[in-house]
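Researcher: We plan to redesign the surface later, but first we want a full-length starting point. Tokens attached.
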């Protein structure tokens, strides 16, 4: 069983930056595809970014391309989401997700692609 713990959320002014972290335990981190999703109150969870188990493939939602960067540090069992040029509409709860993959390049962008989820971290961007 894999446990995921997010951190790094908080309050930031528009135009500022935050770095979210997600640390995994209970599994072999190098075999997992990792991703970030967000969810606004009353809405469905939405894809933000994903990174393959090897790190050679990434994908981003159109709304965050050029502003957010996903990366992973396998030595620390941690995936990061660097968020720059933040906008008030980026305010949401951000969730880390993981799923095992046998492919070094596969990434998933759907909620159903992921088996394990963290509890989320709140990001609030003030105008």
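Model: Full-length starting sequence:
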């Amino acid at each position: 069983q894999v446990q995921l713990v997010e951190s790094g959320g908080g309050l930031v002014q528009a135009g500022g930056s935050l770095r979210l972290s997600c640390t995994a335990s209970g599994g072999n981190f190098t075999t997992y595809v990792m991703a970030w999703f967000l969810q606004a109150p009353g809405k469905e969870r939405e894809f933000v970014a994903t990174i393959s188990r090897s790190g050679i493939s990434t994908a981003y939602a159109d709304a965050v391309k050029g502003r957010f960067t996903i990366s992973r540090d396998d030595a620390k069992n941690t995936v990061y989401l660097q968020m720059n040029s933040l906008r008030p509409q980026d305010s949401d709860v951000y969730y880390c997700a993981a799923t095992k993959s046998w492919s070094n390049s596969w990434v998933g962008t759907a909620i159903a692609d992921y088996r394990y989820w963290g509890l989320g971290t709140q990001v609030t961007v003030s105008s």
